[in-house]
Amino acid sequence: MTGFLALEDGTVFRGESVAAEGFAFGEAVFTTAMTGYQEIVTDPSYAEQLVCFTAPMVGNYGVADGRSESKRPHARAVLMREARGPAWTDWLHERGIVALSGIDTRSLVLKLREAGAMRAAVVSGDASLEEVLSAVQAQPTMAGRSLVADVSTKEPYRYSDLGSVEIAVVDYGCKRSILRRLAGAGAAVTVLPHDVSADELAQFDGVMLTNGPGDPEPLVDEVAVLRELLGRVPVLGICLGHQLIGLATGHETYKLRFGHRGANHPVLERATGKVLVTSQNHGFAVAPTDEQEATHVSLYDGTVEGFAFPELRARSVQFHPEAGPGPHDAWPIISEWIEGLEKCPTA
Predict the structure, then answer these.
(1) What DSSP string describes 81-98?
(2) Which of 33, 47, 147, 251 is most solvent-facing, going by the fewest CB within 10 Å?
């Protein structure tokens, strides 16, 4: 069965349908990660997005339950130069994900780099291009969209009972690999909804603010909670959590043209001059600043990749130190944070 991707400007890429029938609307984006396709599709940060893989072959090492970053896929559709299976394509089909193989991904990525991520639709089967484009243009843009309520847990739950420190994880779209890293570092972990109060969070030894989808600016209630919380308990933010700390401390965020998505993004650690190769997945960023609290910067565009606020007992990173998937340059960040809480839980 054939299919096609239609971008909001009318550009069409055609391919072969290899998974579920139907159509999917979302924001067309690309990732340069060479591995981790199952982790990427199940990452809640990819909610409402149509993911193009730049890797020339996807699915070649199969699937496994332990690789999923959440209970279900969050990407709306998958676009590939060559899909290998049948385990991967069967997995997508069983979960209702529209996927196309044979897409000219090189041309698509060049298009998105030049024009920016844009609204689009992926169609499996026949459909009127005119009607599809009309529907695409009626979709909301990603800018201004608050999506965390759609992916956050509705009720608190206990992930790990054993640990020397009690960590609250605020779930804006949390990846399972973050929870595994926290528990593996020696923390007892409780996961809480995105709308948890500052008073409840202040009862823990530390608070982790997780990744998540969408634009951080509409999350005014979550930012207000952070302003009330900062200084009362140690806080570590990752990805969206980093952006929310930025907003809570007076910094600005904005939408990137095509985002940072991949497992090879260079980040400068200002204090040491060391360059970390990092895993990233975000379409919004904290605007560049010369302020001292900006500890890490992107070597691609100068956006802020890390903060440290010692007086507020808070720090954050835009990249993913849990590296699920990705390089391990930043792995120590989570374990060192837990070690610091163990040594001085009130510091």
Answers:
(1) SSB--SHHHHHHHHTT-E
(2) 251
Provide the sign of the torsion angle of the four alpha carbons 49, 50, 51, 54, taken in this order.
negative
Cross-strand partners of 5? 13, 122
Extract the tokens encoding 137: 């243009």
pLDDT at 347 over 50: no
The whole-angstrom distance between residue 168's C-alpha and the CA centroid of its chain comes to 19
Backbone angles phi, psi at 274, to 5 degrees: -75, 140
d(CA 272, CA 274): 5
Task: Provide the CATH topology of domain 148-343.
Answer: Rossmann fold (3.40.50)
**In the predicted model, what is the mean pLDDT of residues 175-192?**
98
Task: Calculate mean pLDDT across residues 233-259.
Answer: 98
CATH number for the domain running over 2-137: 3.50.30.20
Q: Which residues are catalytic?
A: 239, 320, 322
Domain parsing of the chain, residue ranges: 2-137, 148-343
Of 76, 77, 85, residue with least CA distance to 48: 76
